[in-house]
UniProtKB/TrEMBL annotation:
InterPro entries attached to this UniProt entry: LpqE-like, Lxx211020-like, PCuAC_sf
Signal peptide (residue range): 1-30
Source organism: Frankia umida
Region of interest: Disordered: 33-84
Designated name of the protein: Copper chaperone PCu(A)C
Xref: Pfam families: PCuAC (PF04314)
Length: 233
């Protein structure tokens, strides 16, 4: 038995050495493995900061500078009124054009505004239409609590200002329309200005109240036909 003891000690020594080597290998592997995730995690953090650079695309909020298109309102050009006619010629902008449904046998009123965004005054000198042999311009004069119409030959459009043809104020009259104008029709009008020139627009015939009831301005009918008849009589 004593002759075998050296062999046992030799095998035990080799076993211990192998065990120590395996333990060292495991420790080294664990150490390397724990280092890799740390190094791997660093690129994403750097990369994510680059995505903050994508906040520079938030610089596309500079397209919010397209709100500068809202600056078109700064030019003074009025927006169109739904259900009415609009036209532009040079620095003049015609808006809100309409004809109230005809309530008189002989006349029909026309209303619109002309905004001048230029620095030169202009003048509306005439209006023509296939719907009537003559279109006249009128202003409303109040005397002793009653209103009457007075014919004028032209309508001034001030520089950087607005001329308004509205109920109870300046307006145009289609004299003796070729037929009675009713709601839903379209009437072609040609306006002539001293400087801007000529512009043609197609104007809708609306109900008695115009685009809205607010346009009545306390009048019984938007055409003012009765006071017009008195003025012509």
């Amino acid at each position: 038995m004593t002759s075998h003891s050296p062999h046992r000690h030799h095998r035990a020594g080799r076993l211990l050495a192998a065990t120590a080597l395996a333990a060292a290998t495991l420790l080294a592997t664990a150490a390397c493995g724990s280092a890799d995730p740390d190094t791997a995690s660093t690129p994403p953090t750097t990369g994510s900061s680059a995505t903050t650079g994508s906040s520079a695309t938030g610089g596309s909020s500079a397209t919010g500078g397209s709100s500068a298109t809202g600056g078109s309102s700064a030019t003074g050009v009025p927006t169109a009124t739904p259900g009415t006619a609009s036209a532009d010629v040079a620095d003049l902008h015609i808006r809100g054009a309409y004809i109230p449904q005809q309530s008189s046998e002989t006349e029909a009123a026309v209303y619109f505004t002309v905004t001048n965004t230029g620095g030169t005054p202009d003048t509306l000198t005439s209006i023509t239409t296939p719907a009537a042999p003559q279109v006249s311009l009128h202003t409303t004069v109040s005397r002793g609590g009653s209103a009457s119409m007075r014919m004028v030959t032209e309508l001034a459009v001030p520089a950087h200002g607005t001329a308004t043809l509205a109920v109870g104020h300046n307006h145009a009259m289609l004299e003796h329309p070729v037929h009675r104008l009713t709601k839903g029709e379209q009437v072609r009008l040609t306006l002539v200005f001293t400087h801007a020139g000529t512009v043609t627009l197609t104007v809708p015939v609306l109900g008695y109240t115009g685009p809205s009831a607010h346009d009545m301005s306390g009048m019984d009918m938007p055409g003012m036909d009765m006071s017009g008849a008195a003025a012509h009589g």
